[in-house]
Amino acid sequence: xxxxxxxxxxxxxxxxxxxxxxxxxxxxxxxxxxxxxxxxxxxxxxxxxxxxxxxxxxxxxxxxxxxxxxxxxxxxxxxxxxxxxxxxxxxxxxxxxxxxxxxxxxxxxxxxxxxxxxxxxxxxxxxxxxxxxxxxxxxxxxxxxxxxxxxxxxxxxxxxxxxxxxxxxxxxxxxxxxxxxxxxxxxxxxxxxxxxxxxxxxxxxxxxxxxxxxxxxxxxxxxxxxxxxxxxxxxxxxxxxxxxxxxxxxxxxxxxxxxxxxxxxxxxxxxxxxxxxxxxxxxxxxxxxxxxxxxxxxxxxxxxxxxxxxxxxxxxxxxxxxxxxxxxxxxxxxxxxxxxxxxxxxxxxxxxxxxxxxxxxxxxxxxxxxxxxxxxxxxxxxxxxxxxxxxxxxxxxxxxxxxxxxxxxxxxxxxxxxxxxxxxxxxxxxxxxxxxxxxxxxxxxxxxxxxxxxxxxxxxxxxxxxxxxxxxxxxxxxxxxxxxxxxxxxxxxxxxxxxxxxxxxx
Length: 506
What we know:
This protein is 87% helix and 0% strand. The chain contains 20 helices and no strands. It is globular, with a radius of gyration of 22 Å. Pfam families: Polysacc_synt.
């Protein structure tokens, strides 16, 4: 046991620099991706108005769900198996080939079904204009799945630089094409067409990048396919239910309310996702292959270290961002999107408050699959999705989009609690629950102070003061010295390199 502990420690020190730089690359790409997506939402919401923007949002939601269902967990399975077979080129090539072929076949079938039943989908939402947009989005489904499958090779090999460039290129291309087509007068159809052209362009880039790392191989194709589908189906169930949980609010708003309400809610959820999924998304992308590799080698201490530090500093950064966003909610929405979207402010506040803990835990959410237990994710997500649907059905008719936000916030918090419970009870990972409760309680106190004092102190001054005080508290009370170095290292690579050298020197 001693040699395992020593090996775990040595790998932890060796990987600390790579972990920080991997995160920095992915974080930059996430910032560009979410930032450009956020910019696109601002442009579309202003140019199209709440109604047409709601049409585009519904189409994008249907497209996203379709690609996940059609993918059947294959892209995530490629990441897992490539990480496991990192040094076995023959088996790795067989996995990627099987993933690409099966993903393309499934995507084509799903796209065809979506295209043929677009009219029925539009009738379900009582929005006839939706059918043409859904048909256009259906053409992009197989291309998107092939894209993400090939991208899984880069993620599994932890080639995060190339991986990140793909997202940067895709994001910029989507914004440019969407802006051009909207200006040309194509309305929401132009925005959906831009999505199709972007998938085609980024597929060409990904194919060129993966070429040195991969060659087609039909070796044991049937056996490899069976193995991938067996694992992928379990990942798929977890991911599918998670996605349903994520998009239930938007779909039910479209069904129970109007496309204008969808457009307003899309503004609230867009800001919340940019703020709370960029950093956790970057970290989970790096964590997944790392945890899979460590777990397969029996390095339990290394797995626990990755999970614990990810939650800690995500929690601190996201709670600071959440406090500031809630304090400035009205100003942010009015300045960026216009007065027509001010009814989304209460929903936005509820979403942000409810996603603080969830955002931090989502940075390690895929670890259950990485540790060969995707079935646990499935069970948890089924439970949470059921709770989310019930809450939305009960609250949306009563409170509109704010009710949808409340249902989402409660279900996200429940999901975070269940993931932490499983990590502790099933995998014996020490989770610092007390720190999480402490942070959430402190944020609540500071928010109460803001709402009590904002009529006597200028809101901007009060927001700055409270956020600064809270940031100082969280920095000192929650983070360890190594956490602080890694956070700055992820944000500023040059600083991280200097700091890590000093730490190792000591």
